[in-house]
Each structure stands twice: as C-alpha cells, then as structure tokens.
Amino acid sequence: MAASLLAREVSDLCLGKPALRSLSVSATVGDALTTLKRSRDNYISFWNCNHGHFSEVDKVDAVAALDDCRCVGKVCVADIIGFLCKEENLLNPGIALQAPVSVLIPKTGDFVRHLESNASLVEAMDLILEGVQNIVIPMEIGGKNSRKKLLQNNLSKSTFHNGRQYCWLTQEDMVRYLVNSISLFSSAAVNPINSLDIINVQDIPAVHYDDPASSALPLLAKCLEMQTSVAIIDGDGKLIGEISPYKLNYCDEDVAAAIATLSAGELMAYIDFGGPPEDLIQLVKERLQERKLVKALELMEDDSGNSSVSSSCPSSSDDEFGVGRSVVKSVGNSARSVKRSEAIVCHPWSSLVAVMIQALAHRINYVWVVEEDRTLFGIVTFAGMMKIFRETIEDHDLGKALKKSPT
C-alpha cells in the first residue's frame, strides 16, 4: 500500500492548480512588474520561447518553436524590488525598469526543472534534495488535435506552451501530501527535529536590527531562491522578527527606497501591514534628498499621489502567507518600538510532524528554531523535512517496491 501511495503520479498533487502565466525572456523588468500588478499571481514564469508573437507566415515554423519551449525561471515583486535597490538603479528607476527581465533570473544553479506528469513523488523529492527549487509539471488539456487547436486559437495566450498548459509543483504540495500520509512514517515523524539532523545552524540568514536594511539584500536574494526569509535579531541574538520576501511581494516598488535608507528594524515597521508610519515615510524622503537620489524620491512622490498605488502591504496577505499578526515589541536598547510581522518559530525539541503542520498552516516553507528565551538557534525547511521522509522510504525498501509498481 505504501509503495502504491508514493508511486502516485505527481499530476495528482497538481489537481485544481492554476496554469502558469508567462512572459518571454525578451520582456523587460517593467513588463514583469506590470503583469504581476494586474494579476493575482505571486510569480510570473519566463520561457525561452516567444510564440505569442508569431505572424501568419511564421505559423509553419510554430510547431518546432513550441517543441523547444522551456521555463527558465520565475520572478516576483520582491525580485524587482531587490533589483531596484542597487545604487545605479536608484539613480534612475525608470531606466532600470527597461532592463531585460533576464537580469533577474539566476545564472547559476538548477533553479527550474521540468518533470513529466506521470513521474512519481519520489522522483520529485529527489530533485528537491538535489537542489532544484522549482518543478514545472504539464497539465493535460486532452484531445489529439490540441496542438492544432493551439496554433489556430491559443497561439497568443500566455498560459500555453508545447500545446499544453503547465503549473508549479511546490515543496508545499509535496509536504502536504506527506502529512496526509503521515501514518506510514509515524516512527520518524514523532521524533524531535534536533535528533534528525535537519536544523541548519551554520548558514542562517540573519542581520542585526540596527544594521542597514540594504545589508540584507544579498541574503534576501538567496532567500528568494531558497524560499525562506531573513531573520532580524537583537544584540543578544534573540529573534525579533523577519524581512520576508512574501511580504515584499505585496508592497510596491517604491519600497526599494526604504530598503536603501532605513535600518533593518525600521524596515520591519515600514512594510508591516496597515501602511508605513508617516514619520518613516518622511525619514526615507529626507535621506533620499541627502543622497541626491532625485529619481527615487520622485518615485515615492508619484506613488503617494496615486490612490491605486500604495507603499503599504495589504493585511489580506498575512493570513495567506503566514507572516503572522502584527505586534508591538521593544527592540533591545533601541528607542523605537518596532511593529513587526511575527516570525513563525518552533523549538529544537519540537516533533517533526508538529513543525510540518505549523509550516503548512502558515503557508511558509520554513520555520525558525529558537531556544526557550527566543535566542535564534537555526532554521528548518521543507527540503530538510523531505530528506527524512526520503531516507525512511529507503530504510523500508520502498524504493525497490516503487520500481516494480506499474505506473
């Protein structure tokens, strides 16, 4: 029964998921930003094909082009904000937005991998454990004439590639499936996480609350790839909050000015839901003036005068992405009380299944591990959790059973 369960096709984990909306790699950063703002999508995928712009005379070559169509990356608002934070881009954000979107796609690493819809869960888990961060699965649209229909009717639609639509298979999808089958792994699932060697205690993305927010940018770039966040700690190493890429996805591009001018602690207050405090808005403007970043200042002024565009981060996203409720906490010796999005935490002695359920409930791919006094101990991720389940499958010789099972 276990072998049959784990051999289930990954397409079953994608039932009901929306098709990937996409742009060509020839698009600009501004195109990506506009598309993200106009849609409900958190990410926009980028493909190496451009079949949305074939003319009638080009349709003879369209089939060959579709066969070569591959997803090469994905971009979110947080990626764009990080790009705009660079000094040269703050000097003229308008020109920066005209840059090709390829500048936002990682040049190294196995960032995106395609997987056939009839692949097994174990195959998908192995890709994640190899370092792949995003898996693309084809969604069957049925019919022998689907390719012909695509060329006739759907060639310009942004969700069709290779005659099919695609969706993301996420780490959350896989972990949720494993939790639903937890009885098969009960011996490992009840163990405390500090006994399973899955807590990352060496490479923790963290900055001090008094550090410049810009010092977190390299960490944020890495967190976007690894689907985690940057921890904010006080002088005693205690976790006081986080800078979350998920939260930045619900902010506007003028937040780049805040990142460039505020401390990490101030930035937490700036991006918290309900909108940035007026004193912090004024502080950002003053510092932009001091640094003669006129264009960045104009960007803030334009947004503040546009009722449809605001630098606040909507509270409706908080429940969806699990960034927690807003609380007011005194930060170490700082004179400022920082309103923050509370980081989701567990303890080293928390059980694996408890941490999995906690992460799934808050729609995040990680949980901070803290000591009893809230000193930051490490971080545990979905990838680390899946490692335990993969090892359990091997220990029970389910891997061999999977190879014998019919697909």
From TrEMBL:
One GO cellular component, as annotated: nucleus
Keyword Cell inner membrane: no
Lineage, broadest ranks: Eukaryota, Viridiplantae, Streptophyta, Embryophyta, Tracheophyta
Encoding gene (name): LOC107901720
Species of provenance: Gossypium hirsutum (Upland cotton)
Record's protein name: CBS domain-containing protein
InterPro entries in UniProt: AMPK_gamma/SDS23_families, CBS_dom_sf
Keywords assigned: CBS domain, Repeat
Top-rank taxon, per record: Eukaryota
Keyword Repeat in annotation: yes
